[in-house]
Input
Amino acid sequence: MKINIGVTGLNATDNPGPGIGVIRAIKECKDLDVRIIGLSYDVMEPGIYLHQFTDKVYQIPLPAAGQSVLMERLKYIHSKEKLDLIIPNFDAELFSFIKLSPELSAMGIKTFLPELEQFEERHKYKLNEFGEKHKLNIPKSLTVTRLDDITRATDAFDFPMVVKGKYYEAYIAYTSEQIHTYYHKISAKWGLPIIIQEFIRGIEYNVAALGDGKGNTIGAIPQRKLVLTDKGKGWAGIAVDDPSLVAMTHDIIRKTKWRSGMELELMKDEKDKIYLIEINPRLPAWIYFTAGVGQNLPAALVKLALGHEVKPFTTYAAGKMFIRYSLDHVCDLKEFEKISTTGEL
Amino acid sequence: MFKLKKNVAISESGFLFVPSTGDSFSVNPVGITIIHELQKGSAEDNILTAIAEVYEVDRNIAEKDLYDFLHKLKQLNLIENDNED
Output
């Protein structure tokens, strides 16, 4: 019997959501027979029109509309599609889905999300406390909610500094004026607080990982980005063979008992000291690469969510690369009309 | 004596790859000769002899080029000096 899976993050743009990578990996898993229900926020998300990935698509309300509006929409979708599982892929929507997960579970819809406490404690603006609690190396940072607070940061750290939004975007500031500029730019888009972080010189690595919620790491793939877009998104990367990055991931998952996919942003300095820069509480946009190097983490997440036993992966093909590309997909205006007017396709 | 770091791999075409960092480099045929000699554990003097013989180059020029190249490899963290252990 087919498993009906709702997936968000269909925006396969130059600032991509993870949805298409998640779906592609799940569909390649021979053990799973799935039907993918795309859940989109915008009618121009490319995944809506890519029928090799999405079997059906429904628009859902933005997180700002509130949980009850989202729940009503999900009930409607469930009445049509008999959803077995939902995999949300955006940071900004996770809070709502975590809060709704008991209600979804009662309806027979499974999720595989972090506990609310796990989700909350790893926020960028709480990373200092998170590091202290779990004994992890974290760059020093300050949470700023008023312009006056910026001087606290300029007094505390040397330039350059990293200026970050609550959910997205980060810039390196070399002067106080640049901090002010980025403060306004980020807060206008993502709201407050803004995080000002000590700049660590070194090589950045990203690890995509999956925790089973009991402290076990089901898989972990460390990669180094080889090409960045002007938005700082990885456009190419290589899987590296560095056991210390994998060990740090295991350590974090063991200490937090992380339940769900995650992406760690790590920085290794010249003395090989590893700093945790950020924990993204979901699978990353480059997640298909994990399947490409031998650890299909999205498929493993589906199996865990459905209550199957999943053995941890132990190896991966280091040295393999991915290169993202853009492609013009041609579709009929009728499709655009249908999703725009009925909210379904 | 310099030694190539254990995890550095080199292909026949001169493509150098470090699996732990994902760094990669291309070296020319002289570079390949030097790196193969480093892999064999040859001392600088023996590497010089190998280059001078294969490429029929003045030993002083070869020596300067060799040390420039070794300096670059050291900067890139691809070799280590035995004496530093």
In short: Chain B has a mean pLDDT of 88. Chain B has one domain: 2-79. The longest helix of chain B spans residues 59-75. The first strand of chain B starts at residue 2 and ends at 4.
